[in-house]
C-alpha cells in the first residue's frame, strides 16, 4: 500500500498540487524520445511542404493551395505537441492561462485541418466528376477565399465552444498542475456533429461518387487505349494524372479518418467531456499531422523534386558563404 512519502506531486512543496503519474524511468524516457521525435519530424516535414508550395509558382494550383493550408495546420500541431510532453506525467507547469491558450490553438488548428479535408474532397469531386467545368469553378482565388473562411470560422467556432474556459481559465481544475477544459453536453453534441459526423458524411459521399466515376474513366481508358491516336494521347494523359491525384488525396482522407475516428468515438460516448491531451486517442489524432507530408513524399513527384532543389540551394548557399569567409580571412 502506497504511503504519503511514496506519492509524487507536481509541485513537491505543495500538497494541494496534483499527483504525478509515476512510471518506470525507461518507459518515461521512451515516451519522451518518441513524442519529441514525432514532433520534430512533423514540424520539419510540414515546413518543407509549406516552403515548396509557397516558393515555386508552378505549384500554386488550387489543390496545392489546399494542401498548403493543411500543411500549415499540421505544422502548428507539431509545435503544440512539444507542450503535450508536459502532460505525459499528468502535470502542467505553465499556468492556467497558457493551458487554455494551448487547447484553444490546438482546437483551431484541428478544426481548420478538418475543414480543409472537406475542401479537398470537394476539389477532387469537381476535378473528376466535372472536369470541363473545373478550371472555371475551382480557381486559385476562390480557393484562397474558401481557405480563409475555413480558418476564420474555426477561430470563431472554437471561441464559442470554449467560451467559459476562456473567460475563467483554470476554473475546472481540481488541483494545482492540472490542465483541462470542460465542454458542455450540448456543446459536445454540436462539436461532434459539426467536426465529425457532418464532415465525415460529406467526405465519404463525395469520395464514393468520385470513386465510381474514376472507375468508369479507368474502364473507358483501358477499352480505348489500343485505338487511341497520337493527337488524343494528351487527353488520356490528363485523365491519368487526375486519377493519380484522386488516389493520392484518397490515401490522405482515409488516413485522416482512421486517425480522427477513435477520438470522436470516445467523445460521442461522453467519456471525453473533460478533454485530456495525454490520452491515446488524442495522440493518434495528432499523429495524422505527421502522416500527411509522408504521403506527399511517397506519391507526389513535385514534393520530392522541390525538396531536392531546396536542399541543393541550401548547400550552395552554405558553400558560397564558406568561400566568402575564406576570402576575407586571406585578405587579413
From TrEMBL:
Residues 45-296 form the G-protein coupled receptors family 1 profile domain. It is a multi-pass membrane protein. GO terms for cellular component: plasma membrane. It is found in: Cell membrane. Keywords: Cell membrane, G-protein coupled receptor, Membrane, Receptor, Transducer, Transmembrane, Transmembrane helix. The chain crosses the membrane at residues 29-53, 65-86, 92-122, 143-162, 182-212, 245-265, 277-299. The keyword Transmembrane helix applies. The keyword Metal-binding does not apply. It holds the Pfam family 7tm_1. One of its GO terms (molecular function) is trace-amine receptor activity. InterPro entries: GPCR_Rhodpsn, GPCR_Rhodpsn_7TM, TAAR. This is Trace amine-associated receptor 13c-like.
